[in-house]
Amino acid sequence: MLSEGICNYVVISYGHSGLWGGGMRQVLLHSTGDGTVFGHFGAVGRYALAARRGMHEFSSGPQTWKHIAMGQRKWANLNPAAIMYEKTMQEEDYFRAPWVVEPFRLFDNCQINDGGRAIIVTTAERARDLKQPPVLIMGLGMHNPSNEVGQAKYMAGPTGAKKAGEKAFQMAGIGLEDIDACQIYDCFTYTVEITMQDYGFFGYGQGEDWFKGGTIEPGGRMPVNTSGGQLSEAYFMGLTPISEAVMQLMGRCEDRQLGPKTSTKTPQIILCSDNGGALQSHACYIFRRW
Amino acid sequence: MPLHKLLPTPDADSKPFWEGCRDHKLRFQKCTACGEVRWPPSILCPRCHSQDTQWIESSGRGTIYTFVVYHQAFHPAFKEKLPYVVAVVQLEEGPMMITNIVGCPPESLECEMAVQVAWDDVSEEFSLPKFQPLLQP
After folding, report:
1. Phi/psi at A105 (nearest 5 deg)?
2. Active-site residue (options: A47, A94, A199, A235)
3. Which among A94, A154, A185, A190 is annotated as catalytic?
């Protein structure tokens, strides 16, 4: 629409009173149809089924997920806008937290909150003269395996991330080695692991080794979810990862800014992901500094 | 939703399934064009889009594809059942369905474990197909 001149600027926004009045709870309670007669509810029930299959097929599990939960919390501790800004997390905090739907403990789950986010998309030509430094969309890809979790055989991968990622990289004309940081849709810790595995950041079942030792944290070699993400900043659907990627490339992230301030590489290219359903739809975006 | 018991809400597609359950018969649609046995019930075969369908009775045996243990009640009807197991069971005939595993401690479960149907008569009208570990003959 933008390139055809049908419109000049597109606002993509998300706002929800997810916490106030139990808005998110109402959305999720009604999402599993007759599955409710078996006590099958919400996103956590569906993603936990996927995660258990991941534990069976490759060595996914809490020993990998704790690194994701703790690593993202460290980023949130640098972000005053994050819900968990003032709350640090140690390994014992992760393991002592109550089960929600096993194998997920409390801190494997994202936040439920009120609020919103918005981004503005336009052509590079129009963006040139705007007040803020723009960020370029280098590539995007989508892939939707679509089967509901009860009938899905892709819960332990390959999820839609595999083909969506391949398409995005092809469009961008770059490879994994060109990515400086990632903002991964993280409704649950497992989502981060399976998405990055399907993109190819590490080999099948190698997640625990890859995440350990602070890989994704401030000072790490591949920063992931640098606002704290949905696990520790706030849940705004796909706009949590996208808005953070864009703000990092614009240099607007203050104490958590990638670069010298957080002992990380100054980012030129950031990869983002978005999910729908229980791994049923997937989008991959690659952004570049202007 | 009512606070007491949750019951199925049959529609035109799923009515024969729930009627079978009432008689403790686990039935699925089989496509007469390509042979695909499907769940959930639908007017078209998801594999070949044929509308030619017959209902077949399942052996009631299958394996656990994946499972979870609920430690929080998302609805008051399940508060007293905690902790309880929700699983995806794959039947011998092929379909995969959301159900409960009952009759054994959650910690004894693993993926690929053999199970068989165990009926739970929840009302005059409805019996739920739950599953338990396969009893050895």
Report:
1. -90, 175
2. A235
3. A185
Q: Please report, for residues A170, B37, B59, the alpha-carbon distance to residue B56 in angstroms, rounded to integers and kept in the order given.
A: 47, 9, 10
Identify the domain containing residue A63 by its residue range: 10-289
Is residue A170 domain-resident? yes
Q: How many CB pairs under 8 A join A and B?
A: 95
SS3 A210: helix
What CATH number has the domain bearing residue A244? 3.40.47.10
pLDDT at B2: 45
pTM for this prediction: 0.96
When divided into structural domains, chain A yields a total of 1
* CB-CB under 8 Å, B68 with A101: yes
What are B's interface residues with A at a Cβ cutoff of 8 A? 1, 6-9, 14, 39-40, 65-72, 74-75, 77-78, 81, 83-84, 86-88, 95-100, 106, 110-112, 122, 128, 130
State the pLDDT confidence band at B137, using cuts at 50, 70 and 90.
Answer: low
Q: How far apart are CA A56 and CA B29, in angstroms?
A: 30
Kindly give the confidence (pLDDT) of every residue in chain A, 290 residues in length, as a single tens digit, with 9 standing for 90 and above: 898 999 999 999 999 988 887 878 777 777 778 899 999 998 999 999 999 999 999 999 999 999 999 999 999 999 999 999 999 999 999 999 999 999 999 999 999 999 999 999 999 999 999 999 999 999 999 999 978 888 999 999 999 999 999 999 999 999 999 999 999 999 999 999 999 999 999 999 999 999 999 999 999 999 999 999 999 999 999 999 999 999 999 999 999 999 999 999 999 999 999 999 899 999 999 999 99
In this prediction, residue B4 carries a pLDDT of 60
Domains recognised in chain B with CATH numbers = 15-133 (2.40.50.840)
Q: How far apart are CA A25 and CA A23, in angstroms?
A: 5
Chain B residues whose beta carbon lies within 8 Å of the beta carbon of residue A50: 66
Residue by residue, what is the 3-state secondary structure of B16-72?
HHHHHHHCCCCEEEEECCCCCEECCCCCCCCCCCCCCEEEEECCCEEEEEEEEEECC
User: Is the ipTM beyond the 0.90 threshold?
Assistant: yes
Q: How far, CA to CA in Å, does A115 sit from each of A23, A26, A253?
A: 12, 17, 19
